[in-house]
Amino acid sequence: MLLASSDVLPPAELATPVWLDAMSAAVGGVFGALTARRADLDVMGALFIAVATGIGGGLIRDTLLQRGTPAALTNPWLVPTALGAALVGLLFARPVVRLTLLLTLLDALFLGIYSIVGTEKAFRADLPLLSCVLLGVVTGVGGGLLRDILVGDRPMLLLPGAVYASAAAGGTTLFTVALALGGSTAVWFVPALALTVLMRLGSLRFGWNTPGPAAVDARMATVTSWPARLVRRSKPATPGGPAHDEPPRPGRGTRRGPDQR
């Protein structure tokens, strides 16, 4: 039995502490600055990309929910933190690149946290279940989506490659279904977060990739060839000698024609 949000959620919203929001904005700002540096943008362009990456997901979420001024703009720490992180990424690019592993781990963690927070806010707003999953995914990947669009690249999350948006979708789906069936936010937050993080890091560690069109076509060809293989295997072999439609081979007792001599 699916329950309404008023029957499931506690009175207080699922909120993240300010320091965690600032860390998320900082990590996004660093990634945005490094992307802007590779795209050969000027300083102002890099700062703009960094801010969009750092706070873009929450900005899109609150705009779609139409709940007044987005929290990313009312919080006095997020934009300055993203700007400061962008300057660090621009001025100290080489040392920052050496921290790629740490930044990747933090990015996977923040992907899970903010995807689930976005899902909880959508569920509290009595949106349909699929809309809750969608808004959670948008919250988690929105900053990276804006970053790629602004630098003129095809968004990485739409291309074949390591699992990213799919990881967010996995965690938010688990969280949404759990809440709809009467589960507690406090209980299901950690399992949904763990699923998202493990899917993201597992894709990087073990090479789990989302398939492209060529890979899908190859798999479909393999699947559709199974019936033909089964038919060939099920045909009984002709006992004793060649098949009936095979012409006789020349030998003893067989008269050769002029063209067979």
From TrEMBL:
Region Disordered: start-end pairs: 229-261
Domain Glycine transporter: 19-93, 105-177
InterPro entries (alphabetical): Gly_transporter (IPR005115)
Keywords carried by this UniProt record: Cell membrane, Membrane, Transmembrane, Transmembrane helix
Protein's UniProt keywords contain Cytoplasm: no
Transmembrane residue ranges: 18-36, 43-60, 72-92, 99-116, 128-146, 158-180, 186-203
Location of the protein in the cell: Cell membrane
Pfam families named among the record's database cross-references: Gly_transporter (PF03458)
Record membrane topology: Multi-pass membrane protein
Origin superkingdom: Bacteria
Family: Belongs to the UPF0126 family.
Name of the protein described by the UniProt record: Glycine transporter domain-containing protein
